[in-house]
Every structure is written in structure tokens, then in C-alpha cells.
Design brief:
20 strands, alpha/beta, Aminopeptidase i, Domain 2, metallopeptidase activity, Aminopeptidase, aminopeptidase activity, 9 helices, 418 residues, hydrolase, zinc ion binding
Length: 418
């Protein structure tokens, strides 16, 4: 069987390994952008008017763009940097029955069972007394959420609901817990004085390495496919976007999508609008006219048809992993796609020369949503929702078609050109 050039997916695997949290994702994206000649800007300072590639980072969200003289419209590829997992609580040291444990809180829509009996690392950021942000990743087995043995739970295979407070607290050692021990350890791993740490955002991270799957390696398995596939695709497309005519290409990848986007850096914040208005200068009329000519593609993962549960999907729209990116359609605007938006998607896909599919929720099963309707409403901009079909969404190990990530980057490049 002929293999597609999977260099993009190989690079995605490296990106995922380097980006266990939103803060690491922004750092890795910035590293790649700077290697391509982009410059990081400070929101509190004046920005250059010179042509070039630029980006800004705010609290785990990143916005990047290519500036080339006068432009008539923005073409924005939107994504998010966060993933459902477990966040370490402010006072993490706890324990029971001779075990040292770490107090965590569920972040986003986590399918609990997929995180049991897995070796987990810890990653995130520490904020120091002087305001400095230090990234940390303890990249080795550190935590584990142990499952109750089947001998003690004979109904285990009949479906047991897990209590988020009582059953999902990971272990990390033996003995009596000591207050401050965990944060002292993390600070030591980061090479900083524990007394200088005034705040932290730390998360459990799955350790399994990304891998190809199957006889012909047609599948790709990894944690954080939702939604580093889109963030990585946007970075790759922006770096490759050499000729976009009168369009100014933009990547906007937000933190906190999995918890509703209601933060000062999320999709519901003015972050993106502020950047776009600064790029348009002081003329509000010019900004408004530019927005009216602009378009956004909100890219997130969607559900591939499941071979064991086909009845959970719409009978006439059955996207499958490996079939290319999907346009997501919802009559109730859970996805921001209509006729104009579909035409934009299809022009972009045709320009890219890629396969594509439709995604529609089954009428009896309400679907999720994305940053698409949020950003479209915030900006008043034409927005289309797209994404890769995957299995095991929000699991600690998700699955997609091995060629699809490359097709998604090509789709983003097609958007920038139209």
C-alpha cells in the first residue's frame, strides 16, 4: 500500500511531546515561529509597522501573523491549546491509608476510566515572586490513579461511576503526606527556590509516546490530538504562507476552550479583537471594513464514526478517520457553518487538493461546540467550523488517520490564500 508523505505527522508527534500543557504549546509554537524569522511582541509596548512575521502570547494562548504592506482582509485559522486532564489543587499534599497522594481537580470533559492505571507525569508553569513564569515538565512516571481490583469490585465490567473527589486522586508515594512536599519537589525539578513560587498551574500529563498504528500504519495515536493537531497545523501553514495576496494570515490558538473560554485570554476575551484592531491602525472605519471582508476557520477535532457504536452517529453523515478534514454543520449554530461558510471551506479544500467530509450530529444526541461561534460573535466575522475526525476524544490516548494532520495544514494554507 502506497504511503502518503507523513513528515507532517512525524513533526506533529514531536510537537505533542514538547507540549504537554498550553504554556508549553505556546513556547514550542514560538520556538518554531522564531526559527522561521518571526518575532515575539510585547502587548504593553508599541508594535513595529515593518513587514514580517510576529506573535504574542497571553496566558497559554498565542496569536501569530504575517504582515506584508497593505492588506484588505484577515484570514484567521483558530484552534485551542488546552486538553481535558487533571489540574493540581493549590494545596496538593494529601493521602490515605499509608499512601501519599496529590489532590487534583478535573479539568474539562474527562472520560474518567481512560486515565486509570496509567503512568502520568506532571507539567505546567510556576509563577515566581518577581512575576517570572517558569515552565516545568517532570517527564517521567510520577503519578498514577489506581483502579480498584476486579476481585474487590465484581461489577467492574457492568459500568461503575467514579466519584471525582474520592476515586480520582493519584498516588505518588508511600507514607504520611507532608504539607509543601510536592511543590518543593516540583520547584526543585524546575531549578527554583520553593519560597519564590507564589502560584502554579500544574497538570497531570499522559506519558505514552505518539505512535503509528495498524498493519499499514494508517492510524496515529497520541494524547492531545484535541487540539494540538490544529495548533500545529496552523503554525506549519503560517510559516509556509508566502503568497496570500491581499489577505493577512493569522493563527489564533486559545487556552481554556475545554472549560468555556471565559478568561482574559480565552476565545470569549477581547484578546484577538485587540490584536486585529492594532494591526488595522487607529481608523475604526478601516477596521470595520476589513472585518467585513475577513473570514475565520475554527479548527477542532470531531467524532469519527465509531465501528462499535454506529448508531450514535447521523445515518447519512458518517465521517471516518483517514477521510480528510470535516466541515461541521449544526442548524442550531453549535458549529458556525452555513452556506457562505461551506463555500469558503470548499474553496480552501479545492485549493489544497485534499479530501474532505461533512460532520453533523445525530438529532437525538446534542453535540459539543467550539471557539467558532464564540469568535464569530465576538468579532462579527464570517466563521466556518472544521476539524479532523478522531476516535476516543478527550481520552488519555486519542486516534486519528495518519494522513489527516497533513491535510489539515494544507486546508489552513488554502484558507490563507482565499
Amino acid at each position: 500500500m502506497a504511503r502518503f508523505d507523513r513528515s507532517h505527522t512525524d513533526d506533529l508527534a514531536a510537537f505533542i511531546k514538547a507540549a504537554p500543557t498550553p504554556y508549553h504549546a505556546c513556547a514550542e509554537a514560538g520556538k518554531r515561529l522564531e526559527a522561521a524569522g518571526f518575532t515575539r511582541l510585547d502587548e504593553t509596548k508599541e508594535w513595529p509597522a515593518a513587514d514580517g512575521g510576529y506573535y504574542v502570547v497571553r496566558d497559554g494562548s498565542i496569536i501569530a501573523w504575517r504582515q506584508r504592506g497593505e492588506f484588505e482582509a484577515f484570514r484567521i485559522f483558530g484552534a485551542h491549546t488546552d486538553t481535558p486532564t487533571f489540574k493540581v489543587k493549590p494545596k496538593p499534599d494529601t493521602g490515605s491509608a499509608g499512601w501519599k497522594q496529590i489532590a487534583v481537580e478535573v479539568y474539562g470533559g474527562v472520560p474518567h476510566q481512560t486515565w486509570l492505571d496509567r503512568d502520568l507525569s506532571v507539567a505546567g508553569r510556576l509563577v515566581l515572586r518577581d512575576g517570572t513564569e517558569v515552565l516545568v515538565h517532570v517527564d517521567r512516571p510520577l503519578l498514577r490513579i489506581p483502579r480498584l481490583a476486579i476481585h474487590l469490585d465484581r461489577a467492574a465490567n457492568e459500568g461503575r461511576a467514579l466519584d471525582a473527589q474520592g476515586h480520582l486522586t493519584p498516588v505518588w508515594g508511600l507514607g504520611r503526606p507532608r504539607e509543601g512536599e510536592f511543590l518543593e519537589f516540583i520547584a526543585g525539578e524546575a531549578g527554583v527556590d520553593p519560597d519564590d513560587v507564589l502560584g502554579h498551574d500544574l497538570f497531570a500529563a499522559a506519558l505514552d509516546a505518539p505512535a503509528y498504528l495498524g498493519k499499514d500504519e494508517e492510524l496515529f495515536a497520541a494524547w492531545r490530538l484535541d487540539n494540538l493537531t490544529s495548533t500545529h497545523a496552523g503554525v506549519a501553514a503560517l510559516i509556509a504562507a508566502e503568497d496570500t495576496g491581499a489577505n493577512l494570515p493569522v493563527l489564533a490558538s486559545f487556552n481554556y476552550e475545554e472549560t468555556g473560554s471565559m478568561t482574559h485570554s480565552g476565545a470569549q476575551s477581547p484578546f484577538l479583537e485587540t490584536v486585529l484592531r492594532r494591526l488595522s491602525g487607529d481608523d475604526f472605519g478601516r477596521y470595520a471594513a476589513t472585518i467585513a471582508r475577513s473570514a475565520m476557520m475554527s479548527s477542532d477535532t470531531g467524532n469519527s464514526i465509531h465501528p462499535n457504536y454506529p448508531e450514535k452517529h447521523d445515518p447519512t453523515h458518517r465521517p471516518i478517520a483517514g477521510g480528510g478534514p470535516m466541515i461541521k454543520v449544526s442548524a442550531n449554530q453549535r458549529y458556525a457553518s452555513g452556506a457562505e461558510e461551506e463555500a469558503l471551506f470548499r474553496r480552501s479544500a479545492e485549493h489544497a487538493g485534499i479530501p474532505w467530509q461533512y460532520y453533523v450530529n445525530r438529532n437525538s444526541i446534542p453535540g459539543g461546540t467550539t471557539i467558532g461561534p464564540i469568535s464569530g460573535t465576538q468579532l462579527g466575522i464570517l466563521t466556518v467550523d472544521v476539524g479532523l475526525p478522531i476516535l476516543s476524544m478527550h481520552s488519555a490516548r486519542e486516534l486519528c488517520g495518519a494522513d489527516d494532520p497533513g491535510h489539515l495544514a494544507d486546508l489552513a494554507l488554502g484558507l490563507f490564500a482565499h
